[in-house]
Amino acid sequence: MHRRTAPRLARILACAAVPVMLVATGCSSGGGGGEKKESGKPSQPATPNATPTVKAATFAKLPEVCKTLDEKAIDNLVPKADKKEGKALPSSDVNDSASCFWSGLNSEDVKNQQFRSLTVSLKRFASDPTLGTGEKRAADFAAKQATAATTADGAKDAKSEKTSGIGDEATTVSSQTKKDDNDFQNETVVARTANVVITLKYSGAGYEGAKTPDAGDMTKNAQDAAKQVVTAVGNANKK
Asked: Can you count the helices (H) and strands (E) in the chain?
């Protein structure tokens, strides 16, 4: 009897010495050949990460900046403008960044000589996988522009307020500055429409002792002009 059970006992002892993870595949209580079985399908190679994508920017181009305001608007904002068509400021790429400037002195009434200047600047942002969507980049830039306007040109008593009804978001900054003994009232409207930021700066002063222009009137004129520029941006991108 001992002779018949010895081989079986040897197999049992051999399996006991094998690590647990191999028992199920390498040892058997039966009398088979002890062949190992497949433990599972081979693992698949990891798929490389896809290139990150972001939402495409809404606006693909800028309008001609000096044509964003019509002649009627310029006559109202800058009476007796030196160049009613405006002066385009230098830009490396007018499809990404562009500015136009108007100025004029209305001296028809020698007792009420009024100077006005207006600058319209446009900045377009494309979407970038590493920097974010064009809209987000534009929003960040608009916030910086609004903050900068509170101290520009030595501004004092600056007041900043959110303004509804102009693009997707807008801020109006009112301030006063002094140049060549003249007191200037400044209104800066920073507006974002999708991925384009509009910075409109409107300044006025009374010369030769004339009164400084009314801040309320200046604010309203600047905001109305900013609305017109927002519309121009949208129209330039219509298909």
From this structure: 5, 7
